[in-house]
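Supplementary Methods. Inverse-folding protocol.

Structures were first reduced to a discrete structure-token string of length 232. This string, shown here, constituted the complete conditioning input.
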């Protein structure tokens, strides 16, 4: 039996209500002669993308609730790990390439774009964006639109986000970009995919290198029937 009530849930109450209903349904179906050995409980816990979010429950609390509600049903339980694990395991690092003063607003243009992290364009999703090098304590911040270099209306990452002074070449990090980040990336506008780097302590390794333009173009193949039809 499967259930999925949504993703990015940071409160146990909706889960408990759904699992209680599943408990009742399991007993009803077993009473009608159906054999139920496994329950797929769907997505796991969400994560806070902004500092204003409350701290989500811990996996131990989630597991304790499942055991309390379903523990006596004698079933195998499957749970998707949720972005509590994957989301906070990844960041996107981008470089400032240009500062543009506009009419009524300023723009911070990065070398990352909507093809690298499409969640803000697709969902209006929020990601904290912070300088990799910590600014001087107390330095004044100013609102800027943080955008990519792709000429698309969906390329802004954040509008009027307060940021410390940054210059071309400075690095910024998009926090909590590990879920629905690299897996939804594309090579739109022939932009090579961002390389993926695995970090553990003071060790790091490139686990997916950035492809070259030749590698991208050379994936295309002309079919034999088209080659044979070319005029001499």
């Amino acid at each position: 039996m499967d259930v999925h009530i949504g993703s990015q849930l940071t409160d146990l109450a909706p889960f408990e209500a759904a699992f209680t209903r599943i408990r009742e349904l399991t007993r009803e179906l077993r009473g009608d002669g159906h054999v139920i050995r496994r329950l797929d409980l769907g997505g796991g816990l969400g994560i806070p993308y902004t500092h204003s979010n409350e701290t989500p429950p811990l996996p131990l609390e989630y597991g304790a609730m499942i055991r309390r509600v379903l523990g006596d049903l004698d079933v195998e339980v499957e749970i998707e790990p949720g972005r509590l694990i994957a989301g906070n395991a990844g960041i996107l690092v981008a470089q400032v390439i240009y500062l543009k003063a506009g009419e009524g607003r300023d723009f911070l243009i990065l070398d990352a774009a909507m093809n690298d992290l499409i969640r803000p364009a697709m969902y209006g999703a929020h990601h904290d964006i912070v300088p990799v090098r910590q600014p001087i304590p107390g330095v004044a911040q100013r609102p800027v639109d943080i955008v990519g270099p792709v000429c698309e209306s969906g390329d802004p990452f954040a509008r009027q986000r307060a940021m410390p002074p940054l210059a071309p070449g400075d690095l910024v990090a998009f926090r909590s970009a590990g879920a629905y980040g690299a897996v939804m990336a594309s090579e739109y506008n022939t932009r090579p995919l961002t390389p993926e780097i695995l970090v553990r302590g003071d060790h790091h390794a490139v686990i997916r290198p950035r492809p070259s333009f030749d590698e991208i173009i050379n994936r295309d193949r002309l079919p034999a029937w088209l080659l044979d039809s070319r005029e001499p």
